[in-house]
Design brief:
The protein folds into three domains: 220 residues, Thrombin, subunit H, CATH 2.40.10; 87 residues, PDZ domain (Pdz3 Domain, Roll), CATH 2.30.42.10; 89 residues, Pdz3 Domain, CATH 2.30.42.10. Helices cover 20% and strands 33% of the residues. The chain is built from twelve helices and 27 strands.
Length: 461
């Protein structure tokens, strides 16, 4: 057996000594203080962060407890007999918001942050707190608008989310897990994400900047300090960040906010077309230079689209001069255009590009018989659709004829004129089928609702 000193001598080979000579200076450098930079500042986002974070707020929600919706617990005799407190404890939640108008005190957040809120409290970065008034909300885009009465506010400048590119650096600011204002950074991972079944209109910015519960309603900011998105969702098996987060593009949020501030709601209209994605083989057959666009499958009689001359098979390439990427993209553009506004579509037909101008019309009215209430959705009144109306001949379902202000149904975003077409993917054609389907639902269920030209999905919990 060789002696230990022999083993040591054998390991100190010329190759090993050369490697040590190469790496020892690196280890020595890592252990020493950083070299003098000559007075030059190191790269940092600190100036940007100090500029934009005062515009990002924390939102605290006081909502009614489930006990308050129990009719037995509203009975004074029942409460006294079972020693139930007169005031059930309020449930607390937290989220984020962004000040976009310092003079008017306008704050944008997510609809799901303030849904069913009995009271909303906005906390600024300087720790001032203000009660907020709900100006309006749009469940279809998951955007809500609040107003606070406060002085010396800082607002974020709105950017242009259409100018974003995959790879652009972004910063996410919010209130994750109720910890307080937190800043994370990353890049734009993808654009135009849809099919997530989060809300009705989907055109999400995907980012790897860490977004966690409580970040909802917070700001996604570019390196110019401009707001480019409203953080809204995450994908993760544990409900926490795994590097895939989503934000509503600021251009969509701006359009929704403008209508809410003006009308108190988003007034979506009707063009009178059904459309779908342009498949690559269809684009090749039509000799189109691109596979982007939406192909019209139906033009409804006596609609603005028919009067303007649109036809089945036309390919919509642009909306008001801006390229249309897909069917969902066109759907989003139409859904954000208010009633009465003039639009211009660029369509491809028989080898030619045509420009077609038309005006967005109000949804067609539907007549209704005697209204009925729905026990599972307080404040909702429904009726059968009159099949003699043009839209009644096209749409099957039950008509929403009344939504009581401040009710459970209003909180989920249902409106008069909506048509409930399915419950948990089960088609319903009349009140009897709808009530039968509702008797079989669990505590949480989904409804497919036709609004104008679009089908929205509402999750009721």
């Amino acid at each position: 057996m060789p002696r230990p000193d022999t083993i040591i001598r054998r390991r100190n080979s010329p190759a090993l000594l050369a490697a040590l000579a190469l790496y020892l200076p690196l280890f020595a450098t890592a252990a020493q203080p950083l070299p003098d930079t000559g007075g030059k500042s190191l790269p940092t986002l600190a100036p940007l962060i100090s500029q934009v974070t005062p515009a990002v707020v924390n939102i605290s929600i006081k909502s009614r407890s489930a006990a308050e919706d129990n009719p037995l617990l509203r009975d004074p005799f029942f409460r006294r007999f079972f020693n139930v407190p007169d005031r059930p404890p309020q449930e607390m939640a937290a989220g984020s918001g962004v000040i976009v108008d310092a003079q008017q005190g306008i704050v944008i957040t997510n609809h799901h942050v303030i849904k069913n809120a009995a009271q909303v409290i906005v906390t600024l970065k300087d720790r001032r707190q203000f009660p907020a008034r709900l100006v309006g909300t749009d469940p279809a885009t998951d955007i809500a608008v609040l107003k606070i009465d406060a002085a010396n506010l800082t607002a974020l400048k709105l950017g242009d989310s259409d100018q974003l590119n995959v790879g652009d650096f972004v910063v996410a600011i919010g209130n994750p897990f109720g910890l307080g204002q937190t800043v994370t950074s990353g890049i734009v991972s993808a654009l135009g994400r849809s099919g997530l079944n989060i809300e009705g209109y989907e055109d999400f910015i995907q980012t790897d900047a860490s977004i966690n519960p409580g970040n909802s309603g917070g700001a996604l900011v570019n390196l110019r300090g401009e707001l480019v998105g409203i953080n809204t969702a995450i994908i993760g098996p544990s409900g926490a960040n795994v590097g895939i987060g989503f934000a509503v593009p600021v251009n969509m949020a701006r359009a929704v906010m403008t209508q809410i501030v003006r009308f108190g709601e988003v007034k979506r209209g009707r063009l009178g077309i059904d459309f779908e994605d342009l498949a690559p083989d269809a684009a090749t057959m039509l000799k189109l230079p691109t596979a982007d666009g939406a192909i019209i499958s139906t033009v409804q009689p006596d609609s603005p689209a028919e009067k303007a001359g649109l036809r089945r098979g036309d390919v919509v390439l642009a909306f008001n001069g801006r390229p249309v990427r897909s069917g969902p993209d066109l759907r989003n553009r139409l859904g954000l255009t208010p009633v009465g506004e003039n639009i211009e579509l660029t369509v491809y037909r028989d080898g030619r590009r045509l420009t077609v101008k038309m005006q967005i019309a109000a949804p067609q009215g539907l007549t209704a018989g005697d209204a009925q209430v729905v026990p599972q959705l307080a404040g909702l009144k429904i009726a059968n659709i009159d099949r003699t109306t043009p839209q009644g001949a096209r749409v099957e379902g039950v008509l929403v004829v009344g939504v009581e202000a401040g009710s459970v149904a209003a909180g989920y975003g249902l409106r008069p004129g909506d048509v409930i077409a399915a419950v948990n993917r089960q088609r319903v054609r009349n009140i009897n089928e709808f009530l039968a389907a509702m008797r079989n639902v669990d505590r949480a269920f989904q409804m497919s609702v036709v609004r104008g030209d679009f089908v929205l999905t509402f999750t009721v919990r």
